[in-house]
Amino acid sequence: MRSKLVFELQYLGDAFAGWQPQPNERSVHDVFAAALSNAGIIDCGAVAAGRTDRGVNAAHQVVSVRSDADRGDEDLSAVLRDVSAALPGDVRVLSCRQAPASFHAITSARSKRYAYYLGFSEDAARYSWQAPPGLDVGRVRRGAALLVGERDFRAFCAPGGRKCGSTVRSLRSVEIDDLETAELPFVGRVRGLLRIAFDGDGFLKHQCRKMVGALVRLGTGALSEAQVEAALADPRGAHPAVSSRRFAAPARGLWLERVDYAWE
């Protein structure tokens, strides 16, 4: 009886071209597929939920693969062990479980959460974006509230992402946490971080990074709340400080934090 194996992955993105396979480049997909072959799982159609472009990290990414048979707990433990043994140091598999054949990592997902880290110290400079001097966190919070709801995020999307159909997405919440310390996967305890977490039904290419870029510019006074509101009301006429790719936050500070499902 065919079913799916569902893995939960964690990785640092700085040495990857993203999840998707890329010609002559190192991708998370290819590294994971090679590790699966160590467990005897080949041509499995691995599919991952959540957008992780070049340099983006993952704390919890869900991947589904085809399985030709039901597996017991011991078999699942053996798969987890064999896959883990073949992974490099910047990728971990956290869990392996069985799901119905109808399960699909992307289409079965109910919501996703991305977290972006701004740093106020050099502790995690490699996996966060250094906060600019004088950043007004209060202004960042007020700007974040403008983004919540069902909005047309065309202005916050990479040009290529506009070809996939509607640019309307539902952003359920934006949390702003000023953290004295935080635990980052692979990195450990880090001091002085501002965490900006986006929870929504789905995200466009570069959307989170461009939202963070706009919030940081708003927090420094380089952008106004009215300009953010205008970009949401009329995306085609958005101010370049919102829509231009050069103002997007760097990929290194973005983490895919969670993907939620209604497990069958």
Automatic annotation (TrEMBL):
Reaction catalyzed: uridine(38/39/40) in tRNA = pseudouridine(38/39/40) in tRNA
Keywords: Isomerase, tRNA processing
Domain of life: Eukaryota
Gene3D superfamilies noted in UniProt: Pseudouridine synthase I, catalytic domain, C-terminal subdomain, Pseudouridine synthase I, catalytic domain, N-terminal subdomain
The enzyme's E.C. designation: 5.4.99.12
Pfam family membership, one: PseudoU_synth_1
Domain Pseudouridine synthase I TruA alpha/beta: from-to ranges: 144-261
SUPFAM superfamilies in the record: Pseudouridine synthase (SSF55120)
InterPro entries: PsdUridine_synth_cat_dom_sf, PsdUridine_synth_TruA, PsdUridine_synth_TruA_a/b_dom, PsdUridine_synth_TruA_C, TruA/RsuA/RluB/E/F_N
First-tier enzyme category under EC: isomerase
Family, per entry: Belongs to the tRNA pseudouridine synthase TruA family.
Protein name, per record: tRNA pseudouridine synthase
